[in-house]
């Protein structure tokens, strides 16, 4: 996928409430200035090695004095975005509507590059008309981030597939992932769109990733595994039960998504338990071996025993 770069901005006040308001507005204005500048660039524009920008709808990085273009994934464009939780901006791929919305939320007017005379109306993450797809987007992002945690550069992939490999982005070319490191202070993650159904893979600051997923109503952080304190009063046993039952269901979904990426050659810790295919698996001597799988298949399912023949007795 596409790397991302952060530009520092000076903090403007010592008072906490004013500080937050000031840097968010300044972040929005700085993002607009960068986007206006990017509109004047072409791939023949002179640049300094390592410089990053947007050219057209593609991410661009300067190599040997020339911009090398990396197309954004379908439905997204390259743009400078304001950070949410600290001073600065980032360059990344996002949907056009998300770019406009994120800049508008800072209080900056004039759209993506400041030239739009029409005021932009910011979206509400909890609006009834969008709450259904927002939550699903958040859950889908968490599932993808759980899946990405199990991937390596050697994992099988389909051409043009995008994923996260460690903290870097990965693009599948000729059946193998090509890894693009994210810039300092950022990591790769699947993020939920806040304005339409869907997710996308990009680099962003960890705090911004968590904040964006939190806005969808999904709990548990970037991959859903973080423990969270329920906001429901303990005096309500029905509500309390509902909360942990939902969390249990989400936890089960994440585990099943992780299991779908495993095979008998997956590395494991002795005693670790998982599902591989339709079989229960337990790690013995660092391996989810075939023999272990068939034995546990018999314990879990009578039909599996028939398929295993007489090699194992019940």
TrEMBL record:
It comes from the Eukaryota. Residues 114-126, 225-236 have a biased composition (Low complexity). Residues 1-15 form the signal peptide. Keywords: Signal. Residues 107-127, 217-236 are annotated as: Disordered. This is Carbohydrate-binding module family 19 domain-containing protein. The lineage of its organism: Eukaryota, Fungi, Dikarya, Basidiomycota, Agaricomycotina.
